Amino acid sequence: MEPAAATTATSPSARRCSEAWEEHERVLRRVEELEVEVVRLRSEKKAAERAAAALTAELEADHGAAETAATEAMLMIERLQREKSAAMIEAREFRWVAGIRAARERELHDQLAEACALAASYQAILRAHGIDDDPDAGGDKAKGVVIEEASTLSSSSPPAAAKQAFEDKYAVDVRLTTKPVDEERVTEVLCARVEALEADSAAVRREVAAMGRAERPRLEVPARRRCRDDDAAEKQQSFLVLNVFKVLVLLPNIMGNETVCICGKVNKRESHLSFGSSVFAFPPD
Question: Where in this chain does the entry annotate a coiled-coil region (predicted)?
Answer without folding.
Answer: 24-58
